[in-house]
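[job 4471] stage=fold_predict status=RUNNING
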Amino acid sequence: MKPAIEIINLGKAYKLAKSPAYISLREMISGSVQHMMRPGKKDETFMALEDINLSIMPGERVGIIGRNGAGKSTLLKIISRITPPTTGRAVIRGRVGSLRIYSLTDLYLD
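[job 4471] inference complete, writing structure tokens
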């Protein structure tokens, strides 16, 4: 039997744009030549997910637990086909529904 969800070497990168510092009109006029001579700064890249491997068999239930900024929502977005991965691939066989629970007190236990 093939896995319902198969994640292979999955990674997701986001480009972080640098916000310009506040520059007064006087500084802009006096420093315009200096600004043109300076090499451009490269955008930083933030890896939200890196080298994730996972397989979930049909009928299995999975919970994703982690600290803030660990990539839980990003992984669910990729599995739900909302966001494409940057590297690797996510193979989903069948239908997928994601449920985000904000705290363990929101769980309903039988």
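[job 4471] summary: The chain has a mean pLDDT of 80.
[job 4471] exit 0
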